[in-house]
Amino acid sequence: MTLQPDSEVKTTLNPELLGFSLVEGGPVFHLYRRIHHSGDAWDLWWRRILVITLFAWLPLLLLSVVEGQAPASLKIPFLHDIEAQVRLLIALPALIVAELVAHIHLSAVVRRFVERQIVDTDDLPKFNAAVKSAVRVRNSVAMEMALLVLVYTLGLWIWRSQIALGSATWYAMPDVTHLHLSWAGYWYAFVSIPIFQFMLLRWYMRLVVWFRFLWQVSRLNLHLTAAHPDRAGGIGFLGKSSYAFAPILFAQGALLAGLIASRVLYDGQSLLSFKIDAVGLIGFFVLFILGPLVMFTPHMESAKRNGRAEYGLLANRYVFGFEEKWVRGRAPDIGELLGAGDIQSLADLGTSYSVVRDMRLVPFGLEDITLLVAITAAPLLPLGLTTFSLEELLIHLVKVLF
Questions:
Q1: For the chain, first and last CA: distance in Å?
Q2: Which contiguous run of DSSP H or E holds residue 181?
Q3: What is the DSSP letter of 69?
Q4: Interacting residues of 330 by C-beta distance below 8 A, sequence separation 6+
């Protein structure tokens, strides 16, 4: 394929591709725009974080105070409810921050497929069609309305039956059959929880849209080279793009940490009884983010197989010519491959062949996996203080690291 200058490539890009964003679309985004809460500036995003977080959290504090729920009158007062504080003051802001992070990083990822000429020129119309399809689903009013209905039906039922604590709290007094909600509890159940669940489910929808787009791209003719220094055929940027979802993974880890903390402190459960849940959640979400990238493995395997054959043939020709010239003192028939820098060229060829040989079959590496695991697990680390002292926890960490 003939390479084109960047200026020529950019003229082939669909205008929607140049400004592609996974998050800037849909009814909620247009609501942000109407109230001047959309844009790339950090001050606008901080304003959005503050408004949404305070709308979900502050009425709970005020209502619980008005209802006179002093710490001594309940088993779990509002400010002592670790699970609620983590959900609304840590996980919810993290989901909002994730929108800015994804907007910045994923737009560049989409452009790289064309600017680096990974997508064959003949397949550019199909690539642009995939972008248009992703934008259409992202903007779907029906999709966000369906999420809203899901939140107020299945989401509310799951919270009442599986997540709400079975002891007296600031938001409810349970009996055998029902949760008797306080005024703060009504706001929590019908405003705060739905806001959080909607934000989370909308991110799941966006992830499906993103992976569907990548799947469509993986069906195209891709120009990969096994000798690319990223050792991923030239699409190693896809592994790095997973960092755009790091705030979502952090929010998921924070949710689990808050749930475990509540069960340990108020239900008397053992911290170690949740180790399988913690490991399972970390593994699941890291796999959920990186696993779909395996769809590019057939292209990468083909590029590596062809690269080893082609560079192996080139290496044979060069080495045989090198020996003819420098070992046997004959004039080789491959003069164009040999020159004054023969020794250095031989070393460079060896380096190139090593890159081809070591090319991965997935566009991510151990470093990417480790970082995402660490981000997801980070909110769980303070839970160790419920079982160990800070000194004991540090000693355990030192033993693990060294």
A1: 50
A2: strand 179-181
A3: -
A4: 324
Rounded to 5°, the CA angle 59-62-67 comes to 120
Give me the residue label for tokens 């306080």. Answer: 182
Burial bucket for residue 250 (CB in 10 Å: 0-12, 13-18, 19+): buried
Residue with tokens 């993986």: 218
Residue by residue, pLDDT tens for the chain (402 residues) are 444 444 444 445 555 566 688 888 888 877 777 765 555 555 667 888 899 999 999 999 999 888 765 444 556 788 888 889 999 999 999 999 998 888 888 888 888 888 888 988 888 889 989 998 998 998 888 999 999 999 999 988 888 887 776 677 888 877 666 778 889 989 999 999 999 999 999 999 999 999 999 999 999 999 888 878 888 888 989 999 999 999 999 999 999 998 888 888 777 777 777 888 888 999 999 999 999 999 999 998 988 888 877 777 776 676 666 566 656 656 555 555 545 444 455 455 566 667 777 788 999 989 999 999 999 999 988 886 666 555 655 665 555 555
DSSP labels, 33-100: HHTT--SS-HHHHHHHHHHHHHHHHHHHHHHHHHTT--GGGSSB-GGG-HHHHHIIIIIHHHHHHHHH
Spatial distance between the Cα atoms of 116 and 228, rounded to a whole number of angstroms: 12
Q: How far apart are CA 19 and CA 175, in angstroms?
A: 54
